[in-house]
C-alpha cells in the first residue's frame, strides 16, 4: 500500500511548524514506522526536488499543480488531500472522477471558518463532487456538521506523540508556578491579553512567566509586538523559527511543556488555528493546567473547569484566578486532566491505527 498526502507546499510542508503540519507529520511518521510507504506531494514549490526523511517517507516538491498530478496518476493506492488552491479544485475533481476506480481519494477538514458563507464554500466541493474515500474531521463540530450529508466520515483528533504524555508523579515540582505562552505572536492568538496578564502579575513572587513565540514577517502588528518583546526585560521571551522543524525542536516543545505548570492560550477566535488546537492537546498530555476560552469543542475536550474563561471577562478573570492560585489548586486540576486524557484518547499510535482502519487497511 502506498499513500500520498497532497496539497500546496505552503499548507503542510514537513519542515514548517503549525497545527496542520504537526497533524500530517505525526500521522505520516507513525505510518512510516509501521513500514508503510508514504509520500508528501507538494506543489507551488520554488523548485522541483525530492528528499527522503527515511526509507519509507519521502518529500516530493513540484513547481505547479500539473506536475504534481502527473506524479500521482498511477503511483498511489490512497491520496489524502490537505489543501488545494481554489483555482485547482475543479480540475482535481475531474482528476478524481477519472481515476476513482484505481485510487481512493480522501480529504481532511482542518478549519471552521467564522463566516457561514465561507463554511458553506469549504464543504461545497465534497458535496458537489463526492470523494470515493473518507472525509476526516479533526473536531467534533466538523463531524456533526458533515455527517448530516455524508456517510464516509471519520472523527480523527490531532495526534500527540507518546513522549508528551506524563503521569502526575512524572511532572516536575517547581519552586515557582511556571506560566507559559507558546505559539504565534499574533493578536488572534491572544498575545496582547497574555502580555497584559503577565505585566499585571509580574511582581507576584509565586509566579514565573515565559513567552516562546513564532513571528510572521507578513504580520505587521505581530512584528511590532515581537520587537517590543525583544526589547523589554520584564517577561522572559524566546524566539522560535516556524520554518525550522526538527526532532530537536519537537523535544524543545516537550521540555517546555513538561516544565510548565500553567499553559495560557487565549485565542481571540478559533478560526486562527486548526479546529482542535494541537497545543491544547500537547499541553494536556504534558499535564499543564490550561487557561483558555471555551470556543468550539474545547469545553468537551478539556472538560468543565474554572480555567476555561469566557472571552468577555478573560483578562480580569485570569488575573484574579492567578494572583491567589496555589500549588494545591494546580495538583487538583492536574489529576482531573490526567483522567480526561484517559477518556479522550489522542495518542499518535492510536490515531494512526484509526486512520489506517478508515482507509480499509
In a nutshell, what does this entry contain?
Helices cover 41% and strands 19% of the residues.
Q: Termini separation (Å)?
A: 9 Å
| Global outline | globular
Rg over C-alpha atoms, rounded to the nearest angstrom: 21 Å
DSSP helix fraction: 40-55%
Number of domains: 2
* Low-pLDDT sequence parts: none
CATH architecture designation of the largest domain: 3-Layer(aba) Sandwich
Proportion of β residues? 15-25%
CATH class of the largest domain: Alpha Beta
The CATH H-level homologous superfamily of the largest domain: Glycogen Phosphorylase B
- Tell me about the biggest sheet? 8 strands, mixed
Order of helices and strands: EHHEEEHEHEHEHEEHEHEHEHEHHHH
Walk me through this protein's architecture.
There is one protein chain. By secondary structure, the chain is an alpha/beta fold. The chain folds into two domains: 171 residues, 3-Layer(aba) Sandwich (Rossmann fold), CATH 3.40.50.2000; 182 residues, Glycogen Phosphorylase B (Rossmann fold, 3-Layer(aba) Sandwich), CATH 3.40.50.2000. The chain contains 14 helices and 13 strands. It has an eight-stranded mixed β-sheet with strand order 3-4-2-1-5-6-7-8, with helices on both faces. A five-stranded parallel β-sheet has the order 11-10-9-12-13, sandwiched between helices. β3 and β4 form a beta hairpin. α2 packs across α14 and α7 runs parallel beside α12. The model has no long low-confidence stretch (mean pLDDT 95).
Amino acid at each position: 500500500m502506498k499513500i500520498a498526502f497532497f496539497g500546496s507546499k505552503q499548507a503542510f510542508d514537513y519542515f514548517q511548524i503549525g497545527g496542520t503540519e504537526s497533524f500530517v507529520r505525526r500521522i505520516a511518521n507513525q505510518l512510516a514506522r509501521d513500514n508503510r510507504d508514504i509520500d508528501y506531494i507538494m506543489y507551488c514549490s520554488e523548485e522541483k526536488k525530492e528528499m527522503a526523511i527515511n526509507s519509507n517517507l519521502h518529500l516530493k516538491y513540484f513547481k505547479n499543480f500539473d506536475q504534481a498530478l502527473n506524479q500521482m496518476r498511477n503511483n498511489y493506492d490512497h491520496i489524502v488531500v490537505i489543501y488545494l488552491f481554489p483555482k485547482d479544485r475543479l480540475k482535481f475533481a475531474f482528476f478524481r472522477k477519472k481515476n476513482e476506480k484505481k485510487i481512493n481519494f480522501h480529504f481532511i477538514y482542518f478549519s471552521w471558518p467564522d463566516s457561514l458563507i465561507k463554511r458553506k464554500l469549504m464543504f461545497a466541493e465534497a458535496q458537489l463532487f463526492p470523494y470515493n474515500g473518507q472525509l476526516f474531521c479533526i473536531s467534533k463540530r466538523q463531524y456533526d456538521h458533515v455527517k448530516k450529508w455524508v456517510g464516509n466520515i471519520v472523527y480523527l483528533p490531532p495526534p500527540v506523540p507518546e513522549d508528551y504524555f506524563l503521569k502526575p508523579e512524572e511532572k516536575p515540582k517547581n519552586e515557582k508556578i511556571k506560566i507559559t505562552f507558546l505559539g504565534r505572536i499574533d493578536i488572534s492568538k491572544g498575545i496582547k491579553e497574555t502580555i497584559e496578564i503577565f505585566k499585571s502579575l509580574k511582581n507576584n513572587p509565586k509566579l514565573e512567566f515565559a513567552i516562546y513565540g513564532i513571528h510572521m514577517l507578513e504580520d505587521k502588528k505581530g512584528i511590532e509586538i515581537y520587537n517590543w518583546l525583544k526589547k523589554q526585560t520584564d517577561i522572559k521571551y524566546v524566539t522560535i523559527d516556524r520554518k525550522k522543524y526538527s526532532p530537536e525542536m519537537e523535544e524543545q516543545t516537550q521540555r517546555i511543556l513538561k516544565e510548565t505548570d500553567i499553559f495560557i492560550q487565549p485565542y481571540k477566535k478559533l478560526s486562527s488555528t486548526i479546529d482542535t488546537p494541537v497545543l491544547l492537546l500537547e499541553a494536556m498530555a504534558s499535564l499543564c493546567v490550561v487557561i483558555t476560552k471555551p470556543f468550539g469543542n474545547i469545553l468537551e475536550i478539556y472538560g468543565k473547569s474554572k480555567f476555561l474563561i469566557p472571552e468577555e471577562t478573560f483578562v480580569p478573570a485570569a488575573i484574579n484566578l492567578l494572583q491567589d492560585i496555589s500549588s494545591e489548586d494546580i495538583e487538583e486540576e492536574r489529576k482531573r486532566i490526567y483522567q480526561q486524557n484517559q477518556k479522550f484518547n489522542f495518542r499518535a499510535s492510536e490515531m494512526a491505527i484509526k486512520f489506517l482502519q478508515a482507509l480499509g487497511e
